[in-house]
Amino acid sequence: MATVYIRSTRRSGPPPLPPAFFVVLAVQFISTIADNAFLIVAIARLVELAEADWRIPLLKIGFTLFYVVLGPFVGPVSDGFRKGRVMLMANGLKTVAMLLLLAGFDPLLAIVIAGWGASVYAPAKYGLMTELLPPAHLVRANGFFEGATVSAVILGTVLGGVLISPAMPVLPWSENLNLADTAPTALLAGMLALTLLNALSTALCLAIADSGARYTFHSFHPVALVQRFWRENRLLWRDQLGGLSMAVTTLLWGVGATLQLLVLRWAQEALGLPLEQAAYLQGITAVGVVGGAMLASHLVSIDNTVRVLPLGVLLGLMIPLMLCVDSVPMACFLLVVVGGFAGFFVVPMNALLQHRGYMLLTAGRSIAVQGFNENAGMLFMLAVYAGAIAVDVSLRALVLSFGVLVAGGMALVVAAYRLQCTRSCAT
Predict the structure, then answer these.
(1) So what's the pLDDT on residue 184?
(2) Nearest by Cα to 210 from 25, 83, 79, 75
(3) What radius of gyration, in Å, describes the C-alpha atoms of the chain?
(4) Which domains are delineated in the chain?
(5) Measured by CB atoms within 10 angstroms of the end CB, which terminus of the chain is less buried, N or C?
(6) Model confidence over 77-120: pLDDT tens digits?
(7) pLDDT for 190-240, tens place per residue?
C-alpha cells in the first residue's frame, strides 16, 4: 500500500494543505449544496402531490438505504479504482436522479438513486483525503472539510427554500418531460436549476488528481466481500479508540438526521413558518456547526480528541430547550449554539475514527465501515421517527425523547470508555 504525502518546505507553522485537497473540497462543496437542496425540493414535491406526512421521513430513509445495503461493496470499489473516477460516477448517478425527478417520477425513487450515488461517493472522498494527508493534519483538514461541508449545507438548505418559493418563475410544463405521466409541477424551474448544479459537480470530478495510492487486489465475489466486511467491522469496533469514535458518530448521525426533519416540523408547528422559511433554520444551525468545526480544527489535535467527550452529554441536554422557544430570533440563537457544540464535538471524533480506520484497514474500506454503521443508525432512527408520526406522537414528546437519547447515550459512552481505560491501566 503506497500513500503519497505532500511535504511542506516551510520551516515554521503548519505546512500548507496540497492543492489536490482543495479540488476535492470544491467538489464536496458543490455536491453537498445539491444534496441538501434536493431534499427540500423532494419534500416540496411530496407536499405538492398531497402525499401522507409519514412519507417525508421515507425520503431520508431512501437516501440512506444504499449506504447500508452496499456497505460491503463500496469500500473495495473505492480502493480498486482511482478515487476521482469513482466520485465522477457517483455524482453522475445523482444527476440521473435529478433528471428522474424532473421527468415526473416519484420523488422517493429519485432520492433512492441519489442515495446510491452518495453511498459510492462517501468512501472515495474521505479515503482520498486520508491518502493525500499525513495523520497529523487530519483534524485540521477535517476542520476545513467540515466547515466547507456545513457551509454547503447552509447554502443548500437556503437554495432549497428559494427553489420552492414563489420567487421562482413558473415555467410551462413540457409534455415531453412528463415521462411518468404524473401531475405537472410548479417546481419545474427549481428542478432545472438543481439539475445544472448536479451536472457541475459531476464535471468538476474530472479535475481530481490521482493520489498515487494503490492497494492489493481482492476478490469482488459478494460472499467474500460480505465476510471480509464483517471482519473489518469487528476489527474497528474492538479497537479502543476506533470503537469509541464509532459509537459516538453512529449515535450522533442517527439523531442528527432525524433532528433535521424534526426542526422542519418544529419551525412549522411552534413558530408558524412555511416550509421554505423552515428550511432556512436548518441553515442557521449549520452556521454554528461551521464555527464549532473551525474552532476544533485549531484547538483539538488527534492526540487529545477524547477530551471533548463530555460535550456530547451537554449537547443532548440542550435539545429540549427548543420547547421553551416561541420566537424566530430565539430559535436562531439556540440553533447556532447547538450547532456550535455539535461541530466542535463531531469534527475531532470523525478525525479520530478516520485515523484509526486507516491504520487498521485501508482508506476506502475504513470509510465504508464507518458509513455503514452511521447510516444504519440513521435508518433506525428515521424509521422510529416515521412510526412516531404515523401514530401521532406529539412534537413535545419527540423533542424530549431525542434529548434524553443523546445525553443518556453519550453518558454511557463516556462511562464505558473510562471503565475500559481503568481496566487497561490495571493490567
Answers:
(1) 63
(2) 83
(3) 21
(4) 19-210+224-426 (1.20.1250.20)
(5) C
(6) 777 777 778 888 888 999 999 888 888 888 889 999 998 888 88
(7) 888 889 998 898 888 888 767 666 666 566 677 877 888 888 888 888 888
User: Has this prediction a pTM greater than 0.70?
Assistant: no
Q: What is the mean pLDDT of the chain?
A: 78
